[in-house]
Amino acid sequence: MGGAGWLFLFAVLMAAGLLFCMVFFIIMFSDLECDYINPIDLCNKLNQFVLPENIAHAFITILFLISGQWGSFLLNLPLLAWNANKIRNKAHMYDATEIFRTLGGHKKETFFKLGFYLISFFFYLYKMIVALIAESE
Amino acid sequence: MASPAEQLPPGWAAEWDATHQRYLFIETTTGHTQWEPPAAGSAETENAPPAGVTPAGGHGKRRQYAAGQTQAYYGGEAAPDPAYGQASAGLGVQQQGGQLFTPGLAAEGQFANQQQIAQQGGGTQGGYYGQGEPEYLNQQPQQYGQPPVDALANQFGQMGVGGQKQFSLYTTNLLTLPPDPRDLAQPPPEIRLPPNACISPSPTANADPSYFRSTLNAIPTTSSLLSKSKMPLALVITPYRSLNEGEEPVPLVTDTVIARCRRCRSYINPYVQFIDGGSRWRCCLCSMTNEVPQLFDWDQVRNQPGDRWQRLEMNHSCVEYVAPTEYMVRPPQPAVYIFLIDVSHAAVQSGMVATATRTILENLERIPDEGERTKISIICYDTSLYFFSMPPGSTDSSMLVVSDIDDVFLPKPTDLLVNLAEARGALEVLLGRIGEMFQENTIIGSALGPALQAGFKLMTPIGGKIIVLSSSLPSHGAGALKNREDNKLLGTAKESGLLQAASPFYKTFAIECSRTQVSVDMFLFSSAYQDVATLACLPHYTSGQTYYYPAFNAARSEDALKFAHEFGEVIAQPIMLEAVIRVRASRGLRMASFHGNFFVRSTDLLAMPAVPQDQSYAIEVQIEEAITIPFVVFQTAVLHTTCYGERRIRVITAALPTTSNLSELYSSADQIAITTFFANKAVERSLTHKLEDSRDFILQKLVDIISAYKASMTSSGAGASAQLAISENMKMLPVLILGLLKNVGIRQSAQIPPDIRAYSQALLTTLPSQLLIPYIYPTFYSLHNMPPEAGTIGEHGVILPPPLPLTSERLERHGLFLIEDGQTIFLWVGRDAVPQLIQDVFELPSYDALRGGKATLNLLENQFSQRINAIVQKIREMRRGVYYPHLYIVKEDGEPPLRLWALSMLIQDRADVLPSYQQFLSSLKDKVNGASGGY
Ligand SMILES: [Zn+2]
């Protein structure tokens, strides 16, 4: 297996991880709506994952950049910019005092990311297979 | 058009019928109609008019009623009681006829009359001299004789019928109707519940507006109806309001028999139904059938059978229960007060420290401490922390200094937080000494964050109240803030950044506080930038309050007096501790968003470590599914510990009818509640978006309401109209919105310091309607020509002069005026004020000798001075809340900043870029006519 194969295998695993992360976020949000968790605990829990998630995504995007996978890089660029902008505005962390007001927005964002990682997952899987086939030929 | 109405025998009314060009005569008691003028005594009916005829009103006013509606109005007891939900009869026709009913005509005459008299007042100037009795005292009040509203009320009062009344919609044209400030004192539209909704005949069975207001007093049955009307649906609750003198305390149910619904956990109230012979009750919120508790009909005091109909919770909308142990997470904790006093150079020099300690000392007696359990501690701070150890039984105290502020620790495990009763002697001595102790303190800087942490450490695990007195920007240790005031940002899109918290410390700390049942009050005094926006976060999320005394200087007795009064009232307030508030509502309604000072702990639970009196909360309500019941119930439950150590539940139940009818919806709108809600919404929006967005948002809401009203309630429908129509009960809404848009917290300006703005926003989101409305629409009195009874003691205390519309047209060069918004009082002196008047009020020889600025009005040996003092006194006392407004004397040609400040309260005037009321209305009209294509 060559470089591209390994890269996409790694990307597939990362996408799967991020996917699970988003599922976890969504479960936590619905727990909050059902009063199974209070907003303080929720924010403390979720905030631990926010930066790792963003870093993981940034990492894989940069990997695509340096390995010259332009298509995959461009696919990830908008989300990277979105995350970076949020961090720059210090708006990336969940704020327990405002969480109920902003919950709708958070949920929308998380669902969007979930969809995005799902698509990425299959896209990387496809690219991996393509890379493997190309190699075996 | 001579009306024959005057010649009619009693019991008859005449209506002009446009179709037949003749009068229709109606017998008011039976609803019979006839074309022939009735002979006296005749009650015979002939010639009933054909159905669908729309008789137009007499008296030159255009008013149309359907025959059916006429009967409903005039039918009296003979008419069948209109069934609930049939109220739409009148509206359809009004829509068809679509003519505007314009009480403005009456009002206009009134208005002109007022102006005339005001000019006459001007004429008295010449006669002022040389008369023994000052003539300005003798101005007759007859111009205020019958306000247009009364006239209306009378007019329609005659049509009132028994049984359940329908809402009826009266449209007014804003363009011809100048706002009358007296309308703001009107009660909200009546809550007209279907008959038998309430099982108690008690007048207190439905919530008083001072506890509970809804923007709509008839709840739309579907969300599509609500969105069609463009009206906001929100509640304004003040569950813990102070009691006026002579007011009954909230009734207390002591037998711990608390009947609650099994499903929705609501409390039994006057709107439930007893079924199965009284052994069960049906919940009015969720229709669940519940068992009546066994002891419900047992009088535990006398130990004999009791009468459930006499039970307090069955007769009062607002009751308190003594809560049994299952309502306690832990035993009731004592009240704890920790004072954090800034003793840095600036604080000492301004006299704040001396005033504060003296006020605490004077109010020690008033701190709630019935069971002698209250605990108290005093921590001073500059860049170090100063603790005071007060061993019980001794009058000595020793000071312990902690200068390590990076890792705050308590220097001593005991005697720092002491029992108020036990350590009273030591406290008194200490409070008397703190002032001199730090007299020579030259340290500049403030370690507010570490001081907060120390106070927090000291009061955990009990919880309680931290009262912060701070004179400078926090500069040392955790929570240090930078001076981010930048005048270049003011008036730009970036300004709202200055209103958001600069440091996450205050939010994080607030959450910690809320968790540990600690509430924080902020008293801020700086003359320089203090970042009120950031500091106000703490009170915001811990249910405290921010008080701001910019450039406080105790050398000015007015400053010292105001602060001492307000601080003393805050200390003496019987606070509720460890409170949670939950608002439940009938099925289909959901509490969607919350505004006010608290921490939202779950979707519908508000956590409040300590509830101060007279704070208001706004809750937006969403209609999730269609409502099929004739009335809905909102129930606010406040579980709390009194400061005397008793766990209690305060329950406030409010029932509102539902409607599927747009006209009922409009005619039930409460303009005061709508404004209160919009004030909260505007502040929220200015933080999440921009100040400009928040103004646009509120303005757009108003445009939407008027557009929707025009489209559905007037004949012009979607087309252009020369009128600006709105229902009678909302006619003050545009001027209130204008006032809100011109309020310091929201106003478009590049001159408002962020601290002032932030404080104003804190007020906008916490003041109860009673204080908020004058804050948005100040009151304006003319004193030199006030009616003779004004300023004297009447039936309800001191009689106030009639309020004037807020326009400088009313200012006269020789006059004396008073403008107040509940926070500040301005005494405006015209430049041609006669020496006699100056002498009488200010004890000065002439206008030139008078100085503008903060002042105390001395009580002089003349009637006029005494009356003015009585009015000022009344203004300071008449509203709930701790505020003690400053009095400023403003000379017409005095210093411009003060003059402009006072004039900025006259919100109907044009000021700089801000439109006058007339301009505002015409831009509204353009927007409404322009926008209506989209509706
Ligand atoms: Zn229920």
Automatic annotation (TrEMBL), chain A:
<comment type="similarity">
    <text>Belongs to the cornichon family.</text>
</comment>
<keyword id="KW-1133">Transmembrane helix</keyword>
<dbReference type="GO" id="GO:0016020">
    <property type="term" value="C:membrane"/>
</dbReference>
<feature type="transmembrane region" description="Helical">
    <location>
        <begin position="55"/>
        <end position="82"/>
    </location>
</feature>
<protein>
    <submittedName>
        <fullName>Cornichon</fullName>
    </submittedName>
</protein>
<keyword id="KW-0812">Transmembrane</keyword>
<feature type="transmembrane region" description="Helical">
    <location>
        <begin position="7"/>
        <end position="29"/>
    </location>
</feature>
<feature type="transmembrane region" description="Helical">
    <location>
        <begin position="114"/>
        <end position="134"/>
    </location>
</feature>
<dbReference type="Pfam" id="PF03311">
    <property type="entry name" value="Cornichon"/>
</dbReference>
<dbReference type="InterPro" id="IPR003377">
    <property type="entry name" value="Cornichon"/>
</dbReference>
<keyword id="KW-0472">Membrane</keyword>
<dbReference type="GO" id="GO:0016192">
    <property type="term" value="P:vesicle-mediated transport"/>
</dbReference>
<dbReference type="InterPro" id="IPR033466">
    <property type="entry name" value="Cornichon_conserved"/>
</dbReference>
UniProtKB/TrEMBL annotation, chain B:
<feature type="compositionally biased region" description="Gly residues">
    <location>
        <begin position="120"/>
        <end position="130"/>
    </location>
</feature>
<dbReference type="InterPro" id="IPR001202">
    <property type="entry name" value="WW_dom"/>
</dbReference>
<dbReference type="GO" id="GO:0070971">
    <property type="term" value="C:endoplasmic reticulum exit site"/>
</dbReference>
<dbReference type="InterPro" id="IPR036180">
    <property type="entry name" value="Gelsolin-like_dom_sf"/>
</dbReference>
<dbReference type="Pfam" id="PF00397">
    <property type="entry name" value="WW"/>
</dbReference>
<keyword id="KW-0931">ER-Golgi transport</keyword>
<protein>
    <submittedName>
        <fullName>CPII coat sec24 protein</fullName>
    </submittedName>
</protein>
<dbReference type="InterPro" id="IPR006895">
    <property type="entry name" value="Znf_Sec23_Sec24"/>
</dbReference>
<dbReference type="InterPro" id="IPR036020">
    <property type="entry name" value="WW_dom_sf"/>
</dbReference>
<dbReference type="Pfam" id="PF00626">
    <property type="entry name" value="Gelsolin"/>
</dbReference>
<dbReference type="InterPro" id="IPR007123">
    <property type="entry name" value="Gelsolin-like_dom"/>
</dbReference>
<feature type="domain" description="WW">
    <location>
        <begin position="6"/>
        <end position="40"/>
    </location>
</feature>
<dbReference type="InterPro" id="IPR036465">
    <property type="entry name" value="vWFA_dom_sf"/>
</dbReference>
<dbReference type="GO" id="GO:0030127">
    <property type="term" value="C:COPII vesicle coat"/>
</dbReference>
<comment type="similarity">
    <text>Belongs to the SEC23/SEC24 family. SEC24 subfamily.</text>
</comment>
<dbReference type="Pfam" id="PF04811">
    <property type="entry name" value="Sec23_trunk"/>
</dbReference>
<dbReference type="GO" id="GO:0006886">
    <property type="term" value="P:intracellular protein transport"/>
</dbReference>
<feature type="region of interest" description="Disordered">
    <location>
        <begin position="116"/>
        <end position="145"/>
    </location>
</feature>
<dbReference type="Pfam" id="PF04810">
    <property type="entry name" value="zf-Sec23_Sec24"/>
</dbReference>
<keyword id="KW-0333">Golgi apparatus</keyword>
<feature type="region of interest" description="Disordered">
    <location>
        <begin position="33"/>
        <end position="66"/>
    </location>
</feature>
<dbReference type="InterPro" id="IPR036174">
    <property type="entry name" value="Znf_Sec23_Sec24_sf"/>
</dbReference>
